[in-house]
Design brief:
This protein is of the alpha+beta class. The chain has one domain: OB fold (Dihydrolipoamide Acetyltransferase, E2P) (Beta Barrel). It contains five helices and ten strands, in the order αββββββαβββαβαα. The strands form three sheets. Strands 1, 2, 3, 7, 8 and 9 form a six-stranded mixed sheet that branches. Strand 5 and strand 6 form a beta hairpin. The radius of gyration is 21 Å and the shape is globular. The chain starts with a helix and ends with a helix.
């Protein structure tokens, strides 16, 4: 009888684990993209750690033309995520109570992708992780590096005044 109870417990435990992992895997994600470095997954606000993207209303200039660089950063993120599953590694919370995380699509860091695309900057004040991606974009004049722009942190300071 003892072995039978043990086997039953084992089968129930394994079944419960299989159900849990299957349920988590097929559960749909409700993803909303707020801007270039902030998303909501199932209502949870997540700010990408270690990078900073232009504000939505931020404008850059290229060859005398105004470019909506903040909206472009968001658009690039929307296109990259598309209908893919996003996974995030939580790193803490910021002063606004947002979750700070590095998020991935198909094992590619969204932060690294945005910085290498020239529509995000390594946020050196908080992390050194994406500096090589930024140097790549800068040296190849990719994205905002091919334009006249203000760094997002400078833009926010001017906006407050």
């Amino acid at each position: 009888m003892y072995l039978t109870k043990k086997k039953v417990t084992l089968v129930i435990s394994i079944s419960a684990l299989v159900f849990f992992f299957t349920y988590t895997d097929i559960k749909s994600q409700d993803i909303k993209i707020t801007d270039g470095d902030t998303i909501k997954i199932n209502g949870e606000k997540i700010r990408f750690s270690g990078i900073d993207t232009p504000e939505l209303k931020q404008i850059c200039t290229k060859d005398g033309k105004k470019i909506l660089c903040g909206l472009n950063a968001k658009k690039i993120l929307v296109e990259k995520i598309e209908n893919n599953k996003v996974t995030c590694i939580k790193e803490g919370k910021d002063r606004y109570k947002r979750i700070l995380a590095e998020c991935f699509v198909n094992n590619e860091s969204l932060s690294s992708y945005l910085v290498r695309s020239g529509y995000a900057f390594a946020y050196r004040k908080y992390s050194k992780k994406f500096i090589s991606d930024e140097e790549y974009a800068k040296s190849n004049k990719i994205g905002m590096w091919s334009m006249e722009f203000e760094f997002p942190w400078d833009f926010r300071k001017l906006k407050k005044n």
